């Protein structure tokens, strides 16, 4: 079962069901869901309201993902109230990423944009792994799951799905670079 958390990157990062996939309802939700979720996979939705659950269900159906089996009643607040484990994804700015590149030689960076976007310019030391192929590409990159691994995209929306996929693959320290490559380092 795919636990699909449809909250935005900051909410997801602050706490989520371990193993959940984050695709926020903003942006190109349906197309990313269609790319990242197998058509026959059972889906359980995590959202912050009944309205958001219904919106997600409708938008998933539009791309043929009609196997929604349920949702987390009461959202993450109910999960926490039950005393269940919560995973986090630290959100960092591009300025923080720049500092980490300069200070931490063991930092790994994964750029989840499409190849043409990556080729037009990317963060130093960044490996390319397009989001739609991230699960298949990760093993070939030779990254260590125990090392910090920042994930970046153009604007921060797609890169939030990246850490959730990487956490499923055993990565434990996977900060999301908010604002992505379009963000300015200095205001």
Q: What labels describe this entry?
A:
187 residues, 16% strand, alpha/beta, 9 strands, 4-stranded parallel β-sheet, 8 helices, 3-stranded parallel β-sheet
Please provide a written account of the structure.
The model has no long low-confidence stretch (mean pLDDT 93). α2 (29-36) packs across α3. β1, α1 (9-14) and β2 form a beta-alpha-beta unit. Helix content is 37%, strand content 16%. It is built from 8 helices and 9 strands. The protein is an alpha/beta fold.
The share of residues in extended strands comes to 15-25%
Given helix and strand content, the structural type is alpha/beta
The helix-strand sequence is EHEHEHEHEHEHEHEHE
Largest sheet: 4 strands, parallel
The DSSP helix count reads 8
Work out the radius of gyration.
16 Å
**Average pLDDT, to the nearest integer?**
93
Shape: globular
Gap from first CA to last CA: 42 Å
Ranges where pLDDT stays below 50 over 5 or more residues in a row are: none
Helix content estimate: 25-40%
Main β-sheet, spatial strand arrangement:
2-1-3-4
| Strands, count | 9
């Amino acid at each position: 079962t795919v636990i699909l958390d449809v909250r935005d990157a900051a909410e997801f990062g602050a706490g989520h069901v371990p193993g959940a996939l984050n695709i926020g309802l903003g942006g190109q939700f349906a197309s990313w869901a269609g790319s990242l979720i197998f058509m026959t996979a059972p889906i359980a939705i995590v959202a912050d309201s009944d309205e958001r659950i219904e919106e997600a269900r409708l938008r998933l159906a539009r791309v043929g993902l009609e196997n929604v089996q349920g949702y987390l009643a009461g959202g993450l607040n109910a999960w926490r109230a039950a005393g269940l484990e919560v995973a986090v994804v630290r959100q960092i700015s591009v300025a923080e990423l720049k500092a980490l590149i300069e200070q931490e030689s063991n930092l790994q960076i994964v750029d989840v944009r499409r190849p043409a976007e990556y080729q037009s310019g990317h963060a130093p030391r960044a490996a390319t792994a397009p989001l739609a192929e991230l699960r298949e590409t990760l093993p070939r990159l030779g990254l260590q799951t125990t090392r910090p691994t920042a994930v970046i995209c153009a604007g921060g929306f797609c890169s939030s799905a990246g850490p959730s996929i990487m956490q499923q693959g055993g990565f434990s320290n996977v900060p999301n670079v908010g604002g992505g490559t379009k963000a300015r380092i200095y205001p």
